[in-house]
Amino acid sequence: MLDDDAYLHWLDQCGFSDPARTLLTDIRRSPPVRRTAGGRGNIHGQYPSRKMRRTIQFESHTELGAIYLMEHDPTVLEFWDQPTKLKLHYRGPSGRRVTNWHPPDFLVLRPEGASFVEWKVEEELAHLVKEHTDRYQRHPSGGYRSAPGEIAAEALGLLYRVRSSHELSAVFIQNLMFLEDYWVKPLVVDDFHRHLLQERIAAQPGVRLAEILEPKGEITVDMVYALIAAEALYADLTAFPLGEHQEVRLFLDTASAASLPHLSLPSTPSLLHTSLTFGGRLFVLTELNSQHALLQGEFGEPIRLPHAFFQRLIEQGAIGQATPLDADPTRLEKRKILNQAGPKAMKVADTRLLTIQTLLYGTSEDLPVTVSSRTLRRWKAQYEAAEVQYGSGYLGLLPQTSKRGNRIPKSDPVARELLEKAIKQDYSDARQREKVTVYQSYVRACEKHGVAPLTLRTFYRHLGKATTTEIETQRRGTRATYPEQLSYLSLEYHTPVHGDRPFAIAHLDHTLLDIELVAQASGRNLGRPWATFLMDAFSRRLLAVYLTLDPPSYRSCMMSIRICVKRFGRMPQSLVVDGGKEFASQYFDHLLINHHCQKTIRPPAQPRFGSIIERIFGTAHSTFLNNLLGNTQASKVPRTVTREVDPRRLAVWTLSDLYTYL
Fold it and tell me: What is the mean pLDDT of the chain?
């Protein structure tokens, strides 16, 4: 961050106008114009920036990656979150003139000038370019732009840029997170070991990290990471995660790495556990040896390929590493088709896919099935047609046995139209009308139109097919249908959601335990205690457990952190919490900021984002608490509780005893 003299010199060097100078100075002196809040399933939080000496807000994984990028970019002098609001004028999708006060994500100061930057996910930008053509456009030189944003920023003497998540390297961001501990608290490597490492790497440029490490422990991996963080050694942070010792190659500096570029290229073994595209589908390479390769998709059984054929498909480009562009806007439609196909149909499609790929890139002797040439031509035509329609040829190979026979309905088309209208309007209504009531209103509608209604049995069959998650959401709300939504098993490569090492990500949350406690001295009933768990996401180990009879507050949070530091001598690098008010305490925030701990707040009413900590709550109750005297299982049905099973009478556990065994 620039000091006052350097900032004034930068203003003079860039030649800003007086209004631009005033705006930039006000932004630097003022807090953000809005507080970020997670929405549409996004996280939000605060990153303690060492460059800016303050916390920077983010409200998506994309913005967090951009923060890491700017934090370690030497050409970025300063970056400010939610700097101001720009008044944008454009035409909406309906053609009407729209005026919108838009806060850009960041204001970025560079030696050549300043610009507002808006970061968005690639899939969202691809959709916005089609739906909001007047606000977002594709840039002629690549990427995206916003003409209204550029006009509003130009009036202030600044620039406006729209950037995509496609510009972020997941491996690079992961490595920056990995080295964060070595930047916050630098590890000092003595001269002897530093010179020893540099001599070995100078004698063998591009040596693998695994070959440098010695079993006796004379050279530890922490020494290597510390020297990489201090730029005393060089490793390409965009090539491989630093945790993969067999793949990371070490150099003395960037010049020696540039002289041997082939050593930084990913080799075939590095594809293991990465996302690959094959036949228009996404797979993860789960196994690779000298005999075969095993590809696991989101649905269906894994596909086994001979090793030689797998190598040939990679060389021919039939199999490639997945990119963010592979997650196109039609991805959800593809997943629905695959989910409805069933395992048997997908097994048939897998065989056909291997046959088509063998036909294209192999020899006729390698075909996995023996079919006629006419069948092969038909499969190939279906594959190519689905490639054009869906961008996935695999969907064209799914058997269509469910469409055999005469599928033309014999009922009156008006009756069918009224049936669809009744399901969409009456059944999906928030009043949650009974199915029989909806059918009765449908019968009355048919009588008005003078047509015979479909039978009740047919109505139930159509209702079962038409009832989707969207209709149930309109009927019962998003929270009620959340468990029924498809869990998104992401096969694109991102930074590991649970971290790549212990203490990288930890989850903190509270729960009211299902057990009654008594006082140790008097035996008086004290009620149910609250437990605060701090759990490491990578190792699934409980870092801290805190029990209290007080409801959750900032004291519970800070005591959990205190116990963690007492046990392990450090705090987590990133802390995931929910939207509880105790996590928004100033005392708690200051504790995290002073120790450079990033706070991430998960979306509300979506417990899958906190499944790590939510699952341990259930395990603690089912395997431990429900087996103790005084557990409250009986009181969950109050009308059936009698004196003999009343948990308050059976309570024998004290707070200290429960904490000892928990």
Answer: 86
Give the class (CATH, top level) of 4-168: alpha beta
CATH topology of domain 172-269: Arc Repressor Mutant, subunit A (1.10.10)
Q: Has residue 636 got a pLDDT over 50? A: yes
Query: What's the whole-model pTM score?
Result: 0.77
CA atoms within 13 A on the CB side of 300: 29
For residues 79 and 56, the answer to whether their CB atoms sit within 8 Å is yes
Backbone angles phi, psi at 236, to 5 degrees: -70, 105
For the chain, the domains span 4-168, 172-269, 275-401, 413-484, 505-661
Place of tokens 């789960």: 286
What's the pLDDT tens digit per position in 230-289?
A: 999 999 998 888 988 888 899 998 888 887 765 554 444 456 667 788 887 778 887 777
Was domain 505-661 assigned CATH 3.40.50.300? Answer: no
3-state secondary structure 125-176: HHHHHHHCCCCCEECCCCCEECHHHHHHHHHCCCEEEEEEHHHCCHHHHHHH
